[in-house]
Amino acid sequence: MTLNGWRLIALVASIILLLLAAAAGWTAGTAEAARMVIRWTARLSLILFLMAFTASAMVRLAPGAYTIWQRRNRRYLGLSFALSHFVHLGAILTLASVDPDLFWKLTNLVTILAGGLAYVFIAAMAASSFDRIAAAMGGRLWRGVHRFGAWYIYISFIFTFGKRAVMDAAYLPAMVLIAAALFVRLLAYVQTSRSRVTG
Ligand code: HEM
C-alpha cells in the first residue's frame, strides 16, 4: 500500500477541505453549515481515532498487509484524527459566534469542560508524536499521556455518540464500531497475557 505517513494526512486534509467547501457552497457562514462540519468531522475523527487506537491490537491478532500498514501508520492516523478534531473545534467556535442561542441549546458547561480536557490531551498527544518533543518528554511521561489520553478520548466518544444513539438509531453503527474496538483490544490483551503464561 502506498498511502503512508504524510500522504495519509494530506488525504485527510483534502477530505476536510472538501467538507468545508461543501459547507461554504451550501450555506456559507450559517449555523447549518457549521453544524454540518461539526457532525462530519466528529464522524471522520471517530474512524481515524479507532484506527490508531486498535493498530497494535489488530496486528497482534491478525498480522497481514492491512494490519501492518495500520500499525506502521499509527502516528499519522493519530495526527489525522487531531487535525479532523481541531476542525471540529473550529466549527464549534464558528457556531458559537454565528448563533450563540443555538450553541447553548446544543451544548452545556459540563460538555465544554469535559470536551476541553479532551482537547488538552489531543494537543499533547499530537505534539508528542514528533520525535524531538517525545525525546524531551521521556518514555514514562510519553506513555502516560498517550495511554491515559487515548482512553479519555475513547470514553468521550462513548458519551458523545452514546447520548445521541439512545434517541436516534442512525447513531447505532458508530456505537457498534466503538464497542468493536474495545473487543479487539481486549482480545489482543488476553491473547498476549496467555502467550506470556504459556511461553
Ligand atoms: C469544548 C469541547 C466540545 C464542544 C463545545 C462540542 C460541541 C458540540 C456540538 C455543539 C455538537 C452538536 C452539533 C449538532 O448537533 O449540530 C457536537 C457534536 C458532536 N461532538 Fe463535539 N464538542 C466538543 C468536543 C468533542 C469531543 C472531545 C468529542 C469526542 C472525542 C466530540 C464528539 C462529538 C460527536 C460524536 C458529535 C455528534 C456528531 C454527529 O452528530 O454525528 N466533541 N459537539
Strand and helix layout:
Layout: H1 5-27, H2 31-53, H3 55-61, H4 65-72, H5 74-98, H6 100-106, H7 109-127, H8 131-137, H9 139-165, H10 172-198
Helix pairs in contact: 1-2, 1-5, 2-5, 2-10, 3-4, 3-10, 5-6, 5-7, 7-9, 9-10
Bound molecules: protoporphyrin IX containing FE.
Largest sheet, strands/sense/barrel: none
Indicate the proportion of strand residues.
under 5%
From the spread of the alpha carbons, the general shape counts as globular
What hetero molecules are bound to the protein chains? protoporphyrin IX containing FE
Distance between the termini: 33 Å
Structural class: mainly alpha
Q: Which series of helices and strands comes N to C? A: HHHHHHHHHH
Q: What's the pLDDT, averaged over the residues?
A: 93
Q: Helix share of residues?
A: over 70%
Q: Report the strand count.
A: 0
What is the alpha-carbon Rg in Å?
Answer: 18 Å
Quickly count the domains: 1
Determine the number of helices (DSSP H or I, runs of at least 4 residues). Answer: 10
Stretches with pLDDT under 50, minimum 5 residues: none
Description:
- The chain has helices spanning 5-27, 31-53, 55-61, 65-72, 74-98, 100-106, 109-127, 131-137, 139-165, 172-198.
- The chain is mostly helical and 199 residues long.
- The protein has one domain (5-198).
- The protein binds protoporphyrin IX containing FE (HEM).
- Protoporphyrin IX containing FE is lined by residues 35, 38-39, 42-43, 88, 92, 106-107, 111-112, 115-116, 118, 153, 156-157, 160-161, 164.
